[in-house]
Amino acid sequence: MISPSGPKNMKKLHKELKRFSAIEAGLAITGRPAVGIGLAVVFLGVIWAFTAMTFGQTPSHTFLVLAAVVGGYMALNIGANDVANNMGPAVGSRAMTMAGALLIAAICEASGAILAGGDVVETISKGIIDPGAMSDNVKFVQVMIAALLASALWVNLATYLNAPVSTTHAIVGGVMGAGALAAGVGAVHWSTVGAIVASWVISPMMGGVIAAALLLFVKKMILFQDDKIAAARRWIPVLIGLMAGAFGMYLLTKGLARVYAPPSWLVGLAGVGSFLGVWALMRPIVRRQTVEMENRRKAVSGLFTHALIFSSALLSFAHGANDVANAVGPLAAIANALAGGGVEDQAVVLPLWILVVGAAGISAGLFLFGPKLIRTVGEKITKLDRARAFCVSLSAAVTVLAASGLGLPVSSTHIAVGAVFGVGFLREALANHQELSHLVHPPRLDAIDNPQRVEKLERRRLVRRQHITTIGAAWVVTVPLSAALSAGLYLLLTAFLE
């Protein structure tokens, strides 16, 4: 029996997400560049003061304090750049206000980072450079500091250029560049680097194709039907159930990997159970929501609103759990090395203070600098409504699961942006096809005599091409530029400390 209060609570949640006047006012202030930079400096100052007071009596405190500040700076940039991929579609489709999106993302990112973060710390610190080639702890610490600072500087520049980039690629490039200079080119695990390069193509292509296929299904089976209400009652519970199943599997395999590593049968069972449970739950809810609904595309598209909000929250939780390692992975490795652990030892215990630095930095970067990239992903590439944004979010979860199952290397950033482009290009193709078909069928046969009209329709663009160039170039140069910058910083650091 479904509680009648369910839909009311959902409506109440949707209304509450719009009532953040205090946050909106704060955004108007922090959105000013000077204020945002000033608050970021204060945040880094707090990290410096905390680590200096906590570890100030240890012989290696200078390295640890420096690493903590640089790690906090990297976390700020992750929040400013990476989180836009999760919240951009929801904000661009007007499912959430900017303030609501920032609040939800900050809570979910911090929760994911603290509760389930740090699973890939060993990958960042040992999977790129052979640890046996750097037996000197001091050299290892210098490599990690240079890598952190280089990747943070590049992500900062990319955010300024309105280019969402993979922070994982940035830190991988940073470790590779400084590590190769410190231990030799032969110490680089080139198979890992090759997998990263492959993901430049695999990730956006998979995300775009899956998102376009989902949107084509939604349009054909729901939005293009004469009776859109009946079609929505039939298919929207299925689609939301599919999203629940995908996210159930996604959170078990990616978001909660540090807490619990389930067997594959349990992951599959969780996916099927989530799908069936949410499908059964949504059937009466959707039916109730459509009782007096107009038989129009915009009205039907609004049925995806709550699913889109929850998907954005879950994506943020999983992102916080995984990508916090890009900031705290090198920091944890540095802390482990300075505490007397060998370079080849695993940093099994991740100190809570390090996770807090990462979580707080991501949340602060999101509030101070995140809106710019959120608008780029959600509004400036192509126009998103609730149905299109839903397809982008669902594509992100499905693509990561599919790629993991196939053993393919993917980037969540590239997937999400590729999905937005995929949705936009599908819209463009359908719109041009529809317009041209109108020209060659009655009652507009006279329009065939107007070749300029035909040419104009053929050139119709619903995706802003300039973003393809900017974002694509940023993706391509992320690893080599981070590597070169890290190598230069390593040379400066070693020269300064000699």
TrEMBL record:
Q: What is its main location?
A: membrane
Check the record and name the Pfam families matching this protein.
PHO4
**What kind of membrane protein is this, topologically?**
Multi-pass membrane protein
Compartments (UniProt record): Membrane
Q: Name one GO biological process term.
A: phosphate ion transmembrane transport
Q: Which GO terms describe its molecular function?
A: phosphate transmembrane transporter activity
Q: Where are the transmembrane segments?
A: 21-50, 62-84, 96-118, 138-158, 170-190, 196-218, 230-252, 264-282, 303-321, 348-369, 389-408, 468-493
User: Which GO cellular component terms are attached?
Assistant: membrane
Keywords, ordered alphabetically: Membrane, Phosphate transport, Transmembrane, Transmembrane helix, Transport
InterPro entries (UniProt xref): Phos_transporter
Question: Per the similarity annotation, which family is this?
Answer: Belongs to the inorganic phosphate transporter (PiT) (TC 2.A.20) family.
PANTHER family, A to Z = PHOSPHATE TRANSPORTER
- What protein am I looking at? Phosphate transporter
According to its UniProt entry, this protein's organism is Rhodospirillum rubrum (strain ATCC 11170 / ATH 1.1.1 / DSM 467 / LMG 4362 / NCIMB 8255 / S1)
